[in-house]
Predict the structure.
Amino acid sequence: MFFERFGRSRNLRVAANDARRGFRTWRDERPFWAGLFTFTASLPIIYFPYAHLDFGAIPLALSTSAGAGSLIIGVLLVVLAISLWFHQQVHVFAGITVILLALVSFPVANFGGLLMGLIFGLIGGSLACAWIPPTGAPESQPAANRASTAIPAGEDRGGK
């Protein structure tokens, strides 16, 4: 009934399938999970210094003089997460910076966002440092040509 009103189900399925494949290809070419963990680490670091939580009748205010420091750390983590997604060449620099910012957030930003931001930041930075860019076989050269360009055993292609 929904597809009869708003379009053909076949076209919607094809478009959704193409979008999913496109996102999967985009995700596989960059340190996506490192950026996602880094972005997730920034949220509690930014949120908790400005939040006023109520646990029943007990108010809890974590706002301290470190609010500016946690805002700066959180914004830098967001920028690093975006740079991991769109400029994957800087993954080692961004990973080391994320780890350092996560460690600095422990004393500055309410125990690193109540340890959530610290842990997610350490995981995201470690994933960014460990990420290896994908390498594939050259698609322009057919398989038969690749086999013929291999050096046979016992031959040396040196200058002599």
